[in-house]
Amino acid sequence: MSSEIDIAIIGGGNAGLTLATLLSQQTNPPQTVVIEPQTAEQRDCSWGLWAEAGQVQQLEHSMMGRWQRWQLVDHNHRVVQNSNQYNYLSLSSADYLLGCAAQLREPVTLVQESVSSVQPDGDRLLVETHNQRYHARQVYDSRPPKVIENGLRQHFLGWHIHSKQPISHPDIATLMDFRVDQTKGLHFIYALPFSDHHMLVESTLISRTVEARDWYRSAIEGWLRDNDIEVENLIHEEAGVIPMDQLEANPHAGESRIAAIGAASGAVRRSSGYAFQHIQQQVGALADGIAKGDMRVPPAISSQLTSMDRLFNGVLLNRPDLAISLYMRMAQTLNGDQFARFMLGRATLSDWMRVIMAMPKIPFLRQLLHA
Ligand SMILES: Cc1cc2nc3c(=O)[nH]c(=O)nc-3n(C[C@H](O)[C@H](O)[C@H](O)COP(=O)(O)OP(=O)(O)OC[C@H]3O[C@@H](n4cnc5c(N)ncnc54)[C@H](O)[C@@H]3O)c2cc1C
To answer: Counting beta carbons within 10 angstroms of the beta carbon of residue 7, is it exposed (0 to 12), middle (13 to 18) or buried (19 or more)?
Structure first.
């Protein structure tokens, strides 16, 4: 079977399905097919992000939890931040993606298939799956990117649990608790209390090597023990790897009609692993451009921000002894609103000045010279 379409979107994740939903809402939507092999349920995981009040409402249907207080903890300090303007949200990715899929309208459709090849074919692009051939004018490819060999990654394993006793402070999200084994890389526990008896506890490691699953499990067990949290039942386990380094070269570089979007286009912040909001902004601007006939993909993250993140990661790698204090100093110097802006990549000049003043100068200068 073969069909002619305007746009083929490869991958129905955050980038692909958000873009399709926005196209679907346009007055004259382009003929678009999103090609995704897996169901949303098969890919379910929790997505964390900062959001302002207006966006919180839009995301309500997929929200598992919402906090205006969050903390970073090490052996010496506990920094608790409050924000008036921003909420830290945890979304169910499956609910978010199902919500997007439910909004699709003809001529924008989602098919459950896997793309096997993409190649130029005359004035069109031929996108092949096992059962179908699409001749598209434009392809947006969101398949997960490959990180360069030996690149830095954030990898984690998390447990959704019901606790026997009520969880203390369910109004505080723990973004980083560094009081865990630091021998394998920068390691912290991420803990989100969804209610007074239900929480997600994740062991997260930033390093070049992914560990065996039992390593993360024993870190979670140790942290639960140290915090007097007894597990009533383990609801489910999730695990993932997020690239925090340079991506492998795009095999279609130079062919503007096959463009990467989302994480594949570098939308993951290298210093934090957060990507959700950068992807939303990127595909929002792309959909606006497409409505005006401009098919180019805007950068998800500015090159200046990526350079700053690269510098930060360089110090993390070369001075592992300083790694925890870099995050703690940042949290100590910023208030909740400033911290959220920083994590969102929307820091003001004065936020930046505060962070720069709080950082140890010599390791950063050395890294700058080394780069
Ligand atoms: C487990 C995990 C947890 C994360 N948590 C967060 C978080 O809390 N906050 C945050 O901001 N970021 C998080 N990230 C970063 C994450 O990369 C982005 O938030 C976001 O999900 C990326 O969206 P995307 O659409 O670019 O890629 P994806 O969501 O990865 O979508 C790519 C899609 O391509 C599909 N695909 C693969 N091969 C083919 C093929 N041959 N044909 C067709 N389709 C194909 C895949 O099935 C997938 O659905 C997380 C990443 C992972 C992996």
So the answer is: buried
Tell me, yes or no, whether 269 and 136 share the same domain. Answer: yes
Q: CB 311: neighbour CB atoms within 10 A?
A: 17
Q: With CA atoms as reference, report the closest residue to 125 among 234, 255, 250, 246.
A: 255
Domain extent, residue 29, equals 2-66+89-147+247-291
Give the pocket of ligand 1 (CB within 6 Å): 10-16, 35-38, 43, 45, 47-49, 114-115, 142-144, 240, 242, 262-264, 268, 274-276, 279
SS3 321: helix
Of 175, 268, 272, the one to substitute when testing ligand 1's pocket (max ligand atoms within 8 A of C-beta) is 268
Q: Indicate which residue's Cα is closest to atom 4 of ligand 1.
A: 47
Helix (H, G, I), strand (E, B) or coil at 108: strand
Side chain identity at residue 174, one-letter code? T
Residue 80 lies in a domain: no
Residue whose CB lies within 8 A of the most ligand 1 atoms, among 36, 155, 157, 216, for a mutation test? 36
Q: List the chain pLDDT tens, one digit each, 371 residues.
A: 779 999 999 999 999 999 999 999 999 999 999 999 999 999 999 999 999 999 999 999 999 999 999 999 999 999 999 999 999 999 999 999 999 999 999 999 999 999 999 999 999 999 999 999 999 999 999 999 877 778 889 999 999 999 999 999 999 999 999 999 999 999 999 999 999 999 999 999 999 999 999 999 999 999 999 999 999 999 999 999 998 887 777 777 778 899 999 999 999 998 888 999 999 999 999 999 999 999 999 999 999 998 888 888 888 888 989 999 999 999 999 999 999 999 999 999 999 999 999 999 999 999 888 87
- Residue 151 corresponds to which tokens in the numbers above? 């690149």
Residue 296 lies inside a defined structural domain of this protein = no
Statement to judge: residues 60 and 97 lie in one domain: yes
